[in-house]
Amino acid sequence: MTKAIRGLILMFLLAAPSLAVTRAWDGGGTDGNWGTAANWSTDVAPVAGDDLVFPATAAQFATSCNIGFFTTFNTITVEGGTYTFGGNPIRLANGINAVGGTPTFNLAITLSGPQTFTAGTGATATLLILSIGNFPLTIDGTGITGIGLLSGSGTITKNGAGAAAIIAAAGYSGALILNNGIFVVDASIPNSTVSINGTAPMGTLALSGFGGTGTVGATTVTSGVISAGTLTSPTGILNISNGLTFTANGAYVCKIGGTAPGTNGHDQLNVTGAVNLGNALLAPIPWGGFQPAVNDTFVILRNDGTDAVNGTFLGMPEGATFSGPLNSAYQITYHGGDGNDIAIKRVARAAFDFDGDGKSDISVFR
Q1: Is 133:151 a contact under the CB 8 Å cutoff?
Q2: What is the DSSP letter of 39?
Q3: Alpha helices in 88-245, H assignment, sequence order
Q4: With the C-alpha atoms ordered 179, 246, 269, 285, is the resulting torsion angle positive or negative?
Q5: 238: how many CB neighbours lie within 10 A of its CB?
Q6: How far apart are CA 30 and CA 33, in angstroms?
Q7: Which of 152, 164, 203, 337 could covalently link to 341 via disulfide, CB atoms 3.0 to 4.6 Å apart?
Q8: What residues have CB less than 8 Å from 145, skipping those under 6 apart?
Q9: What is the DSSP letter of 266?
Q10: CA atoms of 26 and 332, how far apart (whole Å)
Q11: Hey, is 315 helix, strand or coil?
Q12: Phi and psi of 49, rounded to 5°?
């Protein structure tokens, strides 16, 4: 072999990317540091590019990354347990898989490429600080993923039957897409557009939808459900900037738990910009044992300024009376509140023909 060929081979080997090595935590060291070799099953501490695995059983669950600031690891898998991850900020190349347990990532995580975070059944993954840059992030699985403080401009797509929550944000402006499960936003992200594409709204009202008590940008409910409230306060006010548009396959589920909008009250969508109802479904549902009295009025959609609401909800023209849960009835107006809000009023009727067959469908409303 000539020197030239040997030189080329050496250059190739030096330039070739290193393969990720899997390092499994056992917590066998005297501290919880990632840099302590005895904390890993092979007694070798991880380095940049490695895959990190944290088993459901270990000698200790409190861990701290004392490896260099913003070291890039490939993936993190948590198989169970009550892990806490502190220490230096890291970069992540290919996602997090919380198979089980309740991992809490108190260290800051920055994405270095497109990736997926998955939480398995029964798992709750909490990320205190997450910067996604301009990379797309997919949140998947049947568990819960919570983000404490989000920044960046990449698109976040929610797949899987589980739940995801964005609690706070620092300048985040990326688009949000809901395809399945529950997606809650309590952060103020008025420049983030929202696309709701949930499946089968009539069959999954309690299982699939977008909500929260924060502020989001222009929102389109193509199919599936929009509501308000958060995981810890089921009723609330969701603020929407730059308009709200429904299609006929969309639904607004409004929980009625009190006479005032907000926590311990009823849901309200507070919209600036145009409102287009598109013959979507409106479903007011009782909440928390509250029973509205006759003439109780609920402003369920607050519309800004002087722009009128465009269209109506399914089968509900102006002034229509419709059947509600628990043998109740409501009357709707698109000129409530200050004149261009949507309000429903609990009404009492001795009899009403809801289906137009000439016969009373409900004899007494209470």
Answers
A1: no
A2: G
A3: none
A4: negative
A5: 26
A6: 9
A7: 337
A8: 98, 117, 119, 124, 125, 127, 139, 162, 163, 164, 165
A9: B
A10: 61
A11: coil
A12: 95, -10
- The residue ranges of DSSP E strands in 14-153, in sequence order, are 22-24, 51-54, 62-65, 71-73, 76-78, 84-87, 90-92, 96-98, 104-111, 115-119, 124-131, 137-141, 144-151
User: What are 96's two structure tokens?
Assistant: 């997090």
Instruction: Give the model's pLDDT for residue 222.
Output: 95
- 244 to 150, 154, 175, 192, 253: CA distances (angstroms): 24, 22, 15, 13, 15
Alpha carbon distance 320, 19 (integer Å): 66
Instruction: Return the pLDDT at 349.
Output: 64
What amino acid occupies position 323?
S
Residues 6+ apart with CB under 8 A from 16: none
Nearest-5° Cα angle at 44, 40 to 48: 100
Cβ-based burial of 94 (10 A; exposed 0-12, middle 13-18, buried ≥19)? middle
Residues facing 221 on adjacent strands: 196, 246
100 pLDDT tier (thresholds 50, 70, 90)? very high
- What does the pLDDT read at residue 358? 42
Task: Round to whole Å and give the CA distance between 305 and 112.
Answer: 43
How far apart are the C-alpha atoms of 90 and 286, rounded to whole Å?
45
Q: Tens of pLDDT along 143-184?
A: 999 999 999 999 999 999 999 999 999 999 999 999 999 999
Is the sign of the CA dihedral 312, 178, 263, 207 positive or negative? Answer: positive
Q: Is 13 helix (H, G, I), strand (E, B) or coil?
A: helix
Per-residue pLDDT tens over the stretch 55-80: 999 999 999 999 999 999 999 999 99
Q: Dihedrals φ, ψ of 47, to 5°?
A: -130, 175
Contact 83, 63 (CB under 8 A): yes
Q: Supply the DSSP string of 215-228, one letter for each residue.
A: EESSEEEEEEEE--
Q: CA 163 to CA 231: how far, in whole Å? A: 9
The SS3 assignment for 12 reads helix
* CB contact at 8 A, 244 and 210: no
Q: CA separation (Å) from 320 to 210, 271, 335? A: 27, 23, 13
* Of 296, 303, 356, nearest in space to 334 by CA: 303
